């Protein structure tokens, strides 16, 4: 794991953007993307750049069950707003939160991930150490599946919703094994509420109790942290 310390989210977004440019030069064709407040500055850098994604494929980590592109809290809405409307890819995949048959949707997603192995994956981290929506206890060998969100994640994500009852209780998420299959991973974390999760990820034991700790076993991971998120390292 290479830890990169930055002043703030803007500098972190720039650092991640520089890593992306290197990977594109090296031939990356499939980008793994994440939502949440963490990667917003990174997407701003990308949008302001002259990078052209019209020949690239993107694959997102997760989507809430029950939300679609019409809902401004869905991850497809977030991606359209922050990236895809401004920098279209050849094709962009997200799990379909409105799929009637969730098992079939999970199967579809695992098949497309097998067809488009991710070269460069952006990640955030939850306060409890989750990546994607792989909550504590998620199996390290897990592929895409339907997951139940923990009360702490529902509470953390409720800041984006009108009220906590509006937060979906399930999501479709790429599994830990799917995430670990990416050639390069860039995880960003900002703010003191991420400090414990960052410590567990970097210095703690590799355990399913702290899903992000699995990244210690990956050969090519960059962790970008501001002072607050990195204060316990
Ligand atoms: C959600 C997402 C994660 C994200 C995490 C942190 O639960 N599924 O992909 O990393 O929240 O979000 P934020 O970046 O807003 O702190």
TrEMBL record:
SUPFAM superfamilies attached to this UniProt entry: NagB/RpiA/CoA transferase-like (SSF100950)
Tagged with keyword Phosphoprotein: no
Reactions performed catalytically: alpha-D-glucosamine 6-phosphate + H2O = beta-D-fructose 6-phosphate + NH4(+)
Keyword tRNA-binding set for record: no
A Pfam family the protein falls into: Glucosamine_iso
GO terms of molecular function: glucosamine-6-phosphate deaminase activity; identical protein binding
EC number: 3.5.99.6
Similarity comment: family membership: Belongs to the glucosamine/galactosamine-6-phosphate isomerase family. NagB subfamily.
Protein name: Glucosamine-6-phosphate deaminase
Source organism phylogeny: Bacteria, Bacillati, Bacillota, Bacilli, Lactobacillales
Gene: nagB
């Amino acid at each position: 794991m290479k830890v990169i310390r930055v002043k703030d989210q803007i500098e972190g977004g720039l650092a991640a953007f520089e890593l992306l440019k290197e990977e594109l030069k090296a031939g990356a064709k499939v980008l793994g993307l994440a939502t949440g407040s963490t990667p917003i500055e990174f997407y701003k850098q990308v949008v302001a750049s002259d990078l052209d994604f019209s020949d690239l494929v993107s694959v997102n980590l997760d989507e809430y069950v029950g939300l679609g592109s019409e809902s401004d809290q869905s991850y497809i809405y977030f991606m359209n707003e922050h990236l895809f409307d401004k920098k279209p890819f050849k094709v962009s995949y997200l799990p379909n939160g409105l799929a009637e048959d969730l098992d079939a949707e999970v199967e579809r997603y695992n098949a497309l991930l097998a067809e488009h192995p991710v070269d460069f994956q952006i990640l955030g981290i939850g306060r409890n150490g989750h990546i994607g929506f792989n909550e504590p206890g998620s199996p390290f060998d897990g592929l895409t599946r339907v997951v139940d969100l923990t009360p702490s994640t529902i509470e953390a994500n409720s800041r984006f919703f009108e009220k906590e009852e509006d937060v979906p209780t399930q999501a479709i998420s790429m599994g830990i094994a799917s995430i670990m299959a990416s050639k390069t991973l860039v995880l960003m974390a900002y703010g003191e509420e991420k400090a414990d999760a960052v410590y567990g990820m970097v210095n703690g034991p590799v355990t399913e109790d702290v899903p992000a700790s699995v990244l210690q076993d990956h050969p090519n991971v960059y962790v970008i942290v501001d002072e607050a998120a990195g204060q316990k390292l």
